[in-house]
Amino acid sequence: MIKDLLKESESRMRSAISVLEHDLSGIRTGRAHPGLVEKIHVEYYGSDTPLMQLASISVPEPRSLLIKPFDKSTLKAVEKAILASDLGLTPNNDGQAIRLNLPVLTEERRRDLVKMVHHRLEESRVAVRNVRRDSMKDLKEFETEKMVSEDERKRGEEDLQRMVDKVVAEIESIGRRKEQEIMEV
Questions:
Q1: How far apart are CA 118 and CA 27, in angstroms?
Q2: Coil vs helix vs strand at 98
Q3: pLDDT tens for residues 83-112?
Q4: What per-residue string of b and e applies to 96-128 under the rule 16 or more CB within 10 Å gives b?
Q5: Distance from CA of residue 158 to its chain's centroid?
Q6: CATH class of 34-101
Q7: How far, in whole angstroms, is CA 44 from its chain's centroid?
Q8: For residue 70, which phi and psi values (nearest 5 degrees)?
Q9: What is the full DSSP assignment across 33-56?
């Protein structure tokens, strides 16, 4: 019973980490990578469609992206979606594909991006702590309903706390890596 609860808690914490990694992949660093634009939604035949479903995205040079729509008629819609996004990039449309040139990040912009990373890290830590809180409550309920003994509950809480510490350390590690990427000139 406690093992099942711990497994479920761990899977919820792992999903918080995967959401964090997904969020951080969209934050711009000094280098170009497809993750910057994959999630941009493009108006395509009346529905919002992620760009990665409408085009191939490649990195021909370290500071540029090449977006080739599968259907050339979507070029204008893709260009419009990129302009409307919060990337702050101007697309170059040559009639066949769209090129995005990434300018060098200023020191101030790098600091802003690091602040954004720290905000996302804190959101992930809060999500992990919420999972811990819910699981602790469940463990206490198990004890009050006489499903587990006090010793088993305490062991379960200790195991849960070790798991939380491990996951938070992993979140910190992910954050340090991303911060280094951003600050790298």
A1: 12
A2: strand
A3: 888 777 788 888 888 898 888 878 888 888
A4: ebbebebeebeeeebeebbebbeebbeebbebb
A5: 29
A6: alpha beta
A7: 25
A8: -70, -30
A9: -GGGTTT-EEEETTEEEEHHHHEE
pLDDT digits (tens, 9 = 90+) for 50-71: 888 888 988 888 888 899 988 8
> What CATH number does the domain located at 2-25+106-183 have?
1.10.132.20
For the whole model, what pTM was predicted?
0.71
What's the rounded Cα separation, in Å, for the pair 52 and 31? 19
Q: Are the beta carbons of 100 and 65 closer than 8 angstroms?
A: yes
Structure-block tokens of residue 101: 């040139």
Contact criterion met (CB below 8 Å) for 42 and 81: yes
Domain ranges of the chain: 2-25+106-183, 34-101
